[in-house]
Design brief:
heterodimer; A: mainly alpha; 78% helix; B: mainly alpha; Rna Polymerase Sigma Factor, Chain: A; 2 domains
């Protein structure tokens, strides 16, 4: 093109740059939503989750002394998390609260992620109670099982949140949960050697390190969601 | 030289001022020249360029390098801002959108219109006319006249057949000349 370009002076460019970068690099402070916002309209679901967990504890008392407690504990580890996860999203979809929540200040993905963070922390403590009940049966491997179960719980939770973020559907995560249960049943029926290797041979320190890594991965995921996706504007 | 993607990662993750500086310096003059060629006024070009960079830097978090290169995205933002500017001018003047049919058009060179684009006095008039057309047509015109792209490259970018791009471009040129001659 023949037109002669009239460039701004260096000083003018510098002034523009300052204006642009000051706004662009401003750190947005993310005020996290409180518990009431995260669990808005979820009281019934939390109650159902706790009730199912109590049934789980009752089940633990029933299976004590049968020799295969470890497999059942591993299978039940993500149970509380997934029950609350599914029920909360499905109930909201059915009552059409999702659309309302999508118009909130915080993005729905962020709300779900924060909610499941609290749920997971709660689940870790509840699962420790389960381990406590079965401690005598699990003996030396109780803590390894607790650490391995926590790791599995967190990675399954991360996978379900990522799937939800990408597809907007919680139902696909159902396949994940079912796959976990099938895997544990397989372990119970055919995988005793693998169980022995993973839970009884691998040292507790390794399990704890992997569990710690899984928590760090979770926090990194939350940091990315906050950074990228926390607000709806 | 550090890649655009690496600089963007540093800016979005760590609010790295140096990386932001480098990205700005890398593209400012190119984008400014691109804008100037479409508006012909220094102050206006500076204002639009500032708006473009504001939009781009604020939108960096949402930029996905797998879908398009940063440069492509940057120029797309720039092209849209320029079109928006001229459309708002048309809106203020009460001019309506013009539609063109994808009919058979004689493909001939129209040096007259192309030459006028290099004259500041007529540049804005032409851009105002161009902004009245469908966005897809505007993009073809901008990419051919100001981004130096070939018809084949434009066809690939916009996912259109080569012939469609060519015929639309020349249809616009013909219409612009007609409107220009009518308005005197």
């Amino acid at each position: 093109m023949g037109i002669k370009i009239e460039y701004p002076t260096e000083d003018e460019i510098k002034v523009q740059k300052e204006k642009i970068l000051r706004v662009a690099l401003e750190r947005k402070t993310v005020s996290r939503p409180d518990f009431q916002i995260l669990f808005y309209n979820c009281r019934l679901i939390l109650a159902v989750g706790i009730l199912l967990y109590l049934l789980l504890l009752y089940f633990c008392l029933m299976i004590r002394g049968r020799g295969n407690e470890g497999y059942w504990v591993l299978m039940m580890y993500p149970f509380t998390y997934f029950v609350i996860y599914f029920l909360s999203i499905l109930a909201e979809e059915q009552s059409e609260v999702v659309e309302l929540k999508q118009s909130m200040k915080y993005s729905f993905v962020y709300v779900i992620s924060m909610r499941m963070l609290y749920t997971n922390v709660m689940a870790v403590f509840l699962n420790l109670i389960m381990i406590g009940i079965l401690h005598s049966a699990l003996a030396a491997h109780a803590w390894s099982l607790a650490a391995a179960g926590t790791t599995a719980d967190i990675f399954l939770a991360l996978a379900s949140l990522t799937i939800y973020e990408k597809t907007g559907s919680a139902k696909i995560s159902g396949v994940l949960f079912l796959g976990w249960i099938v895997g544990c049943i397989w372990l119970l029926l055919f995988g005793q050697n693998l169980y022995h290797l993973l839970i009884e041979v691998v040292p507790l320190a390794v399990h704890l390190a992997v569990a710690a890594f899984s928590f760090l991965t979770w926090f990194e995921y939350m940091r990315k969601v906050e950074h990228k996706n926390a607000y709806n504007f | 030289m550090v890649s655009d993607e690496k600089l963007i990662r540093k800016i979005t993750r760590y609010h790295d001022r140096q990386a932001a500086d480098e990205l700005f310096e890398r593209y400012y003059r190119k984008v400014y020249a691109y804008v100037f060629r479409q508006c012909g006024e220094r102050e206006l070009a500076m204002e639009l360029t500032q708006e473009i960079f504001m939009a781009v830097f604020q939108g960096l978090h949402g930029f996905d390098g797998r879908r398009a290169a940063f440069r492509t995205w940057l120029y797309r933002v720039a092209a849209n801002k320029i079109t928006d500017y001229y459309r708002s001018r048309r809106y203020r003047e009460g001019l309506r959108e013009v539609s063109l049919e994808d009919s058979e058009v004689e493909i001939t060179q129209d040096e007259n219109v192309v030459e006028r684009l290099s004259q500041k006095e007529t540049l804005q008039q032409i851009m105002e006319i161009v902004a009245g057309y469908d966005l897809m047509w505007v993009r073809i015109f901008q990419m051919k006249s100001f981004e130096g792209k070939t018809f084949a490259e434009i066809a690939v970018t916009l996912n259109l057949p080569d012939n469609t791009v060519k015929s639309r471009y020349y249809a616009m040129i013909k219409q612009i000349r007609k409107q220009f001659e009518t308005s005197g």
